[in-house]
Amino acid sequence: MEKKSLAGLCFLFLVLFVAQEIVVTEAKTCENLADKYRGPCFSGCDTHCTTKEHAVSGRCRDDFRCWCTKRC
């Protein structure tokens, strides 16, 4: 019985550690509207964000505007 509870406790700590790492990884980036992008966004947003806005990446969202993912 003690081995099962110890294994369960170890598994719980592992799950909590992985969950914490995911939250910390996601918290390091934030998405902002591109400052210098003009016109509706259909493609080319990723290139614009990485070269002109010095961001990690970029994407066109549902509202046809360019959103850049930056490190916060």
TrEMBL record:
Residues 29-72 form the Knottins-like domain. It comes from the Eukaryota. Pfam families: Gamma-thionin. SMART domains: Knot1. Residues 1-27 form the signal peptide. Keywords: Antimicrobial, Fungicide, Signal. The keyword DNA repair does not apply. The keyword Flavoprotein does not apply. GO terms for biological process: defense response to fungus; killing of cells of another organism. This is Defensin. It comes from Cajanus cajan.
